[in-house]
Amino acid sequence: MTKTIGIIGGGQLGMMIAQAAAQMGVGCICLDPSEDAPAASVCKRHIVAAFDDMAALDELCRASDVVTYEFENVPAEILRTLDDKYHIKQGIAPLCDSQDRLREKTRAVESGLECPRFADITDIDSLRLNAEAFGYPCVLKTRRLGYDGHGQKVIRSRDDIADAAAMLSVPCILEEFVRYDYETSVIMVGDQQCGYIHFPIGRNIHTGGILDLSVVPAPGMDDDMRRRLAEGSEAFMRHNGYRGIMAIEYFVCGGRFLFNEMAPRPHNSGHYTIEGCSTSQYRELCRYLLGLPLEEPQLKAPAVMKNILGQDLDSAVGIAAERHPDTFVHLYGKSESRPKRKMGHITFVDCDIERYDAQWRDKFVKQ
Ligand SMILES: Nc1ncnc2c1ncn2[C@@H]1O[C@H](COP(=O)(O)OP(=O)(O)O)[C@@H](O)[C@H]1O
Ligand SMILES: [Mg+2]
């Protein structure tokens, strides 16, 4: 019997989940408030509804054999009701935990991972007190709903506190500012019964709080760091009983790695797995959802993934129109292009950072 995967969210991650499912002969239904959600073009059905529309979410679940999510901010009470009634294979715990920076960091510490110093901030006094303790700069973030650097502010000195306090109309968390060597992420799929697979680990380069490049394998990362990142991340999943797909972002500082945040869905830094690995994060998520055995991914060749934001869309369209072997341009089909909006990505396979710098960097707007 042909199965149907329901996807809460219809962005580019949903689109790539649905593309992987389609290759396996499996159809998807997405729910997303936007009429022209990227996933809609590859799903057999698109329910246009808000993420707090209980009746619409119920409809999505009823029409699906198994349900996953690519959007993180579905209200927790709605998730609980759905989880009681339907087959949300990954459960809702990783999603609920990832919605709150204080909770995810607390879970990380309890699981044996190191975090940047952090504190719950409820008022200007606790902000002042903790900022003095952490030193400057430090970073104030909303506990909920932050993404791509939105909902956070770097506090550079005591003089910034009054301005930053404007954020305190919602619960916040303060973090020490980490002078990391580089950022990385670990993407895993699995559960306690079937075990976990791990994708090759890259280095992530952010500009203005948004991922710009992922370079795989991570330049300068030794085997010992790779092993400890994989083991620590898997221990985090096991300790919390998380199932399905999980991406964890870390800061690497010398021999240490500090947990930054988690996402229980495919991750931007894992786009490269589509052409760069023997199996992708999207395909393995589908295999997990369908109860098929997971495949340990192998890196086919070094790869660089470039995020295409609105300002680089014309360049990406140009590259797509030319002949470049091992260069895979993905465009998400969003009707409105804006600077800083994710419009697509390009994976350069058989490419390292030196080659990217020499051949490709100049084609894009300098960030
Ligand atoms: N405590 C910190 N110290 C230094 N840089 C940080 C810190 N927190 C975040 N950043 C930078 O901002 C980026 C976005 O922050 P993050 O917490 O991952 O939020 P989101 O990705 O949800 O916007 C990070 O990838 C990193 O480059
Ligand atoms: Mg992040």
Description of the molecule:
By secondary structure, the chain is of the alpha+beta class. Helix content is 30%, strand content 27%. The chain has twelve helices and 17 strands. It has helices at 12-23, 54-62, 76-85, 93-98, 101-110, 124-134, 161-164, 223-240, 273-276, 281-290, 313-321, 353-359, and strands at residues 4-8, 27-31, 45-47, 66-69, 118-121, 138-142, 152-155, 172-176, 182-191, 195-198, 202-207, 210-216, 244-253, 256-263, 303-309, 327-331, 342-349. Strands 9, 10, 11, 12, 13, 14, 15, 16 and 17 form a nine-stranded antiparallel sheet that branches. Strands 3-2-1-4 form a four-stranded parallel sheet, with helices on both faces. It is globular and about 60 Å long. It binds adenosine-5'-diphosphate and magnesium ion.
Which key phrases capture this entry?
367 residues, alpha+beta, Rossmann fold, Dna Ligase, domain 1, D-amino Acid Aminotransferase, Chain A, domain 1, 3 domains, nine-stranded antiparallel β-sheet, four-stranded parallel β-sheet, 12 helices, globular, binds adenosine-5'-diphosphate, binds magnesium ion
CATH class of the largest domain: Alpha Beta
Shape: globular
Q: Strand content of the residues, in percent?
A: 25-35%
Sketch the major β-sheet: 9 strands, antiparallel
Number of domains: 3
How many helical stretches? 12
* CATH level 3 topology of the largest domain: D-amino Acid Aminotransferase, Chain A, domain 1
Bound molecules: adenosine-5'-diphosphate, magnesium ion
What is the second-level CATH architecture of the largest domain?
2-Layer Sandwich
Relevant CATH superfamily of the largest domain: ATP-grasp fold, B domain
- The run of helices and strands is EHEEHEHHHEHEEHEEEEEHEEHHEHEEH
How far the N terminus sits from the C terminus, by CA atoms, comes to 49 Å
Q: Name the helicity range.
A: 25-40%
- The unreliable regions are none
Look at the structure and give the mean pLDDT: 96
Rounded to the nearest angstrom, the radius of gyration is 20 Å
Secondary structural class: alpha+beta
The counted number of beta strands is 17
